[in-house]
Amino acid sequence: MAKYTESKCRLCRREGAKLFLKGERCFKGVCAFEKRPVAPGQHGMSRKKVSEYGLQLREKQKCKRIYGVLEGQFRKYYEKADRMKGITGENMLSLLERRLDNVIFRMGIGSSRSQARQLVTHSHFTVNGRNVNIASYQVKVGDVIAVKETKKDNKYFAEIKQMKVGAMPKWLEFDPEALSGKVIALPTREDIDIQIAEHMIVELYSK
Hints:
With about 210 residues, the chain is α+β, with helices and mostly antiparallel strands. The chain has nine helices and five strands, in the order αααααααβββαββα. The protein has a five-stranded antiparallel beta sheet, with helices on one face. β4 (about 170-175) and β5 (about 180-185) form a beta hairpin. α3 (about 50-65) packs across α9 (about 200-205) and α6 (about 100-105) crosses α7. The two termini are about 30 Å apart.
């Protein structure tokens, strides 16, 4: 499978916004975007008039990079959302939020989505008691996501138990002592805090 291996800070600089791809580092003074908030490359500081297509493309790229998915997979999310009832853009974001790696990140078990994805692919979690190691697995209302019993003594998860639970999305609940959480509702647009103009992505794909 294709994988982005270059500096993640370059992605934030290219999109002109902090995408919080490196967890705690993004909140510290060493953040590359805060030091140099311009696009990477020789012409990064030049001002160019961006076309409507360019703006739509940047929104799509930003969303892809936030959730860590590639073009083919991202397009499938759009096509699935387009077949669902409701607003296509909001449906698409809801599908992305329901990825297992994102749920692990939202619960605070992973400091970034990439770290959460690594934890999932290394088979640390169960969903409803069954082992799941697919980062794109779609959770449903009522699903219980938990750290495997055999992994709970791991130093990393032992530290998670001692942490205070931060702000949790309304559609999730998490018990750090038990290292398990539950999906109590489907995420709505109001529950998703990322700064994305999803209607522009829909307009881009609708052409």
